[in-house]
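# nightly structure sweep
# worker-07 picked up a monomer target from the shared queue
# config: single-sequence mode, recycle default, output format = structure tokens
# input follows
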Amino acid sequence: MSIQIFILSKLMKENNYPYKLKKQLSEPIPLDQLVGLTESKLYYNFDSLAKKGLIEIVEIIQEEHRPDKQVFAITAKGREELPKQIYKLFENARKIEEMVVGLAAIKYVDREKVVEILEKKLNNINTRWEQVSGLGEKVEVDRDNEKLREFMTGYISTKTEHTIYWLKDLIQRIKQEEI
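# output follows
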């Protein structure tokens, strides 16, 4: 889904073709390699969006000794669908890193609605943490597993506190329109 959000958000700015988007992602930092975006995945997602009627071919550029370039534009249906996909991405994301494409395209959605989604996520994490934070000490373990329990308790509490901290920070930055 995030690849399709990326494509739709790029087409909101200007008509484009797959190879050019791939090149933009790879320069100056090879983000395409970092996220595992191959040309075949990109072309597959362009094709999928076209089949759904969210994008359409508006031009074919022919160059000598080169394959034709299909230039795509977002359709009215695509403009309507993009915010829905962005909200869904935020709702389904379990980690902040899964939200990056949505954050990059935040200008196409209602920021307050994104904040509501993230605050609900934060409240759920806090509620779950309150329910489980003391359970590790209540579990009886034999001496051989005591160190394992200590390790897991430390890991889970640090990870949860870290997630809470950065989610709060993200919400604040969205509210202040820094992101």
